[in-house]
Amino acid sequence: MKILWLTNVPSPYRVDFFNELGKSCDLTVLFEKATSTERDESWEEHHFIHFRGVILKGIDFDVDKAVSVQMIRYLNQYKTETIVVSDLATPTGIMAIEYMKLCKIPYLLEGDGGFAGSGSGWKESLKKQIIKGAKAYLSTSRSHDEYFLTYGASKERLYRYPFTSIKEEDILPAVVDQEKKQRLKQKLGIAREKAILTVGQFIHRKGFDLLLKAAKRIDPNAAIVIIGGEPTERYYDLIDRLDLDNVYFVGYQSKVKLKEYFCMADVFVLPTREDIWGLVINEAMAYGLPVVTTNRCIAGLELIEDEKNGYIVPVGDRKKLAETINLLLNRDELRESIANHNLNKIREFTVERMAERHLEIFEELKR
Length: 367
Known about the structure:
Elements: E1 2-7, H1 12-21, E2 26-31, E3 52-55, E4 59-62, E5 65-67, H2 71-77, E6 82-85, H3 91-102, E7 108-110, H4 122-131, E8 136-139, H5 142-150, E9 158-160, H6 178-188, E10 194-199, H7 208-214, E11 222-227, H8 233-242, E12 247-250, H9 255-264, E13 267-270, H10 279-286, E14 291-294, H11 298-303, E15 310-313, H12 318-329, H13 332-345, H14 351-366
Parallel strand pairs: 1-2, 1-6, 2-3, 6-7, 7-8, 8-9, 10-11, 10-13, 11-12, 13-14, 14-15
Antiparallel strand pairs: 4-5
Helix pairs in contact: 1-14, 6-9, 7-12
């Protein structure tokens, strides 16, 4: 089976997926740019092992987008094969979609997730123009289903797949015991009995400021560890103003070092204002961590069940955020139960399973 895939940049988790998928099909992936300028250096390492990766020539449009007409040659070459477009909101992706509509070339649309708008207004009409007309729509979640349906998809053309960044080998075989967690805290210089971990970019959308503003209500024996590059002056000012002495800012970490932080943590928190998925949720679950996130995080809405493997709190509700974190910090048995549940559940969301599901969908659509 020949597959042509159009996307924006070779992000590490996407390259892992393409390498897995490429083991079972003839896969060519067109990338608009070599990397995203807002990401760390790990995004610049390309290991295209089991697929052909092509960096298109074009004009940079944004941090992770470009304008390139070079993809038209590939669309014509693969017009009788399976074509997948996942850069739905970039100039190159939109041009590719409209070209295939004009030339009556069948194609599939895929995204990481999405929150549907009202469906009315000129911007919403533009989304409908871009999204309607695909042969099939590959969706990550109930929210993503609704997104596609709002903008022109039909239910019978929706196909669900498990979206993830973790491989089977990344999932811990068992829950980390408290003795090991304490040793890791000492090694990493975390001078607190318990630790709350969050990982992401220092941008407003991630909601780290909300976590800091909730900190005075959180057990003071718990460290708040934020991994995500260099914080802006705003975060330091906030810590000074709130008189917090339990916050640890940690810069970018390699995958090996990041594993130590996940293993030493007791609770994982993503206080996001909005994430169309939130892959750190998958990663936290793979380390057996209880997860607290908001109702504007699709990964949370899809993977987390209250009390079973974490909690969903209303976005921006700092009081509820603090209460939920304290509940988990103070109940050892609950944390252990959640940890075991997460290690089991996340096995359904591996790169291997993601690739397997795509192949099932492609085979079905070929029939």
